[in-house]
Amino acid sequence: MTARFKTRSFSFAVLLFSAAPMQAAEPGSPAAAVNVFIGTGGDGHTFPGASRPFGMVQLSPDTQHRHFRQSYPWAAGYNHGDGSILGFSHTHFSGSGHSDLGDVLLMPYSGETKLEPGYPERPFSGYRSRFSHDQEQAEPGYYAVRLKDHDVDVELTASERVGLHRYKFKAGEPAKVLLDLRTSIYNYDGKNLWSRLRMRDASTVTGMRETRGWAPGRQLYFAIRFSRPIDTRQLLNREEAVEYKGFAQPGKTPGDRALVEGKALMGDFSFGVPADGTLLVKVALSPVSEDNAIANLAEMPGWDFDAERRRAGKAWDEALGAVKVDAPAPMRTQFYTALYHTMLAPSLFMDLDGSYRGPDNAVHKARDFRFHSTFSLWDTYRALHPLLTIVAPEQRSADFVNSLIASQQHSPYGVLPVWQFHGLETWTMIGYHAVPVIADAYMKGIRGFDVDKALAAMTASAEYGPYGGLEHYMKLGYVPIDLEKEAASKTVEYAYDDWTIARMAEKMGKKDVAARYYRRAQNYRNVFDKDTGFIRARKSTGEFRTPFDPAQSNFGSDYTEGSAWQYSWYMPHDNAGLIGFLGGDAKLVAKMDEVFDVKVDENLYAHMEDISGLIGHYAHGNEPSHHVAYLYNYAGAPWRTQERLANIMATQYSDKPDGLSGNDDLGQMSAWFAFTALGFYPVAPGSNEYVIGRPFLDKATLNLPNGKRFTVRAENLSATNGYVGRVTLNGKPLARTFLRHQDIMAGGELVFTMQATPNKDWGTAKDARPYTQTAY
Questions:
Q1: pTM of the model as a whole
Q2: Domains of the chain by residue range
Q3: CATH of domain 11-317
Q4: Beta pairing class for 105-109 and 709-715
Q5: Which of 353, 716, 737, 766 is surrounded by the most beta carbons within 10 Å?
C-alpha cells in the first residue's frame, strides 16, 4: 500500500488480503503511483474500477441515484461524494460529459432478497448498500470495498474482455447474487428496448440487452460464469404487467424458467453457504452474440483471482512504464494518474475471433488490426491521440486509425466517426475530428493502414453536405448562423480539420487535394470580425449577427460549449493570421492577458455546466481553451506562457478526488496535464511540432515506441524558479520555442535551466516561433 491510501485497520482488510498482498503493483512502480480516485469527485467523471489498458471491460462500482432522471453527476456511474453502492457494472466512460453504459450490474448480498435498488437516504430500503471510503481500496486493474449492509467484501479485477469478481461472505451466511439488467448510468423510462436471460448450465448464465440511450439500438451480449453451481435461481421480468406463455402476472414472470425475455429483467441466484465464504464470478462481454461471449471466457481460463490481479497490474506497469518520472509527491502521483487516464479509451470492442459490431449495427470481422471504439474525438484529437503516438506502441495508433477507416466504410452515411461508442455513432459535438487523428498519425510516420482509403475517408467526411452545415460551408466559406446553430464554432473547427487533410495530401503527393484544402483551411478568416477582435457568427446574407456579446453562451447558440472569449483564438494552424488580424504581436499578448486577467462574475457561465475551471474567461475545464496559454509563444513572449501554465497547473489540478476542474473527457484533460508537465504541448496536431512551455517534473524519460529514449530534465526547478532561463537539446542551445516530432523520436536529452525571473530574450525571434500557415 502506498502513501496515498490511509492506514486501515478493519476486519475487511484482514479477511480480504490474508492470502494476497494489499497491493499487487510493485512498490515504486508507475502503477503504484496512480491514485485512481483523482477525478471521481467534482466534475471529473472518472471511475475507480478495474480494467486493462484500453480494455473492453471496465468494471467499477456504481453509486448513482437510479431514481434521478438527471444523471450528469454520475456520468461515470460513481461519485466520490456518495455513501452507498448500487452494484458493480462492466462498462463505463472515463470522464465523459454524458452518461450511458453501466451494463450487467451485479450485487452480492446475504439475507432478505430485495428486487429494487432502494434509496441512498433510506438504508435497507433496497439492495443498495452503504460503504465507507475507509474500507475501499483501488489501484490500476483492481478495486475492493466492503458492503456494510450486506456484510460482503468485494474485489474486482479484469482482463481485456472478462471481469472477475471475488466475494467474501460472512461465515455461515448464504452467498447470493442479484443481476439487474434494468439499471443503467443513463436512466430514463424505456431505455431498454429488449433484453434476454438464459440458463446455459448449472453455473453459466448468458444474456443480452438492446438499448436506446445515447447510441440508439446498441446491443451488448454477456456470459456469466460462477465458481460454484447455482443452488436456487429466479429469472424475472419486472415489468408492471407481462403477457407470458398465455397468462398475465403483474410484477414478474415465473422465476423457474430457463429463458426469459423482456424489458425489465433480473436474475436472483443463491449458492448455499460456501465453506470458505468465497464466491467468484466471471463476466465476459461481446458486441456480437451470447455464444461469442462464452467463447471470450477463454481469455481467463482459471479462477486464480490473485494471479489475474497481478497480470492486470503488470499490464498497467508495462503501459505506464513508457515514461519514467522523477518528481516528488504529489506531482509524481498526478502525472502517473493522468497517464493512466489517457489509457482507458478508445477501448477494445472486438471478440477473440475478431468479430465486432459497426456503425451499421451489423457484424464485421477485423483482419490484421484490433477494432476499438469509444472515440470522443472533439476532445481527444487535441492532445490524447498525439500523446499516444509517443507513449504507446505504433500498432496501437494504427489500430485506432484502422478502426476509424473501418467505421467509415460501414457507416450508412459514408463518414468517419464523430463521437462513437460501442461501434455506433452518437453525432455528439461538432467537427470531423477523426481527420486530424489520422493525419497526425500519418505525418508522424505511423503506418499499418491503407493510406489511400484513409484520405478518401477524410475527404468524404469533409464533403458530406448534410452534416453540420457543410453544404453551406463549402458554398459560402463559412457556416451561416441563420441556417445552422453553433455556426461560428463549426466554421473554425472545420477550417482546422481541412488544414490537416491538406497536410496529409501534400505529403502523399496529392497536390490538387492539398491545394483545395489549404484554401478551405483559410475559411476561419470569414468569421473573424476585425472591428471587435472576435470570431463571430455570420448570416447567409453576409453580415455578422447582432446584437453581439462576446461573453454570451448558450447551448445551440453561436458557439459550442463556449463564448467568443473562448473560441476566438481557434485557428491553431494559422496563429500568424490571428496576430495579423489583431494588429501585431503586442496586440495578441494584450488580448491573451485580457482573457486571463479580466474579472468575471462567477454566475456568468453558471448555466453552462461544461464551462468550468475559469481563470478570467479562460475555461480550462473545457477543450476550446486548452491551447490558449501556449499562444504567447507565437507572439515572441514565451515567458508569458510559462506564467500562465504555472497558474493553470496549480489551480486546475490536484491529487484529490475533485482534482480535475472539468470532465476528463476520455483522457483529454489528463493528456493536457501530461504534456504540460513534460514541458511541451501539440497546439496544432498535424504540424509535427510541440510548443515548448515549461517543465513541472525534475526528470522524465520517454521510452519511445521505436526503442529509443528521450529524456527531459529540469535543472534548478523549484516553486520560485518557474521561468525558463535556457534550453539545450542534446547539449546544444535550443533557440526555438518548439520541438519537432523527429527531435523526440531520435532520442536524446532536452534540458531546461530554470530561474526566478523571465528570460525575455529567448524565443523572441521570428524563426524561433512554432509552425503557422501564414508567413509572419
A1: 0.95
A2: 11-317
A3: 2.70.98.10
A4: unpaired
A5: 737
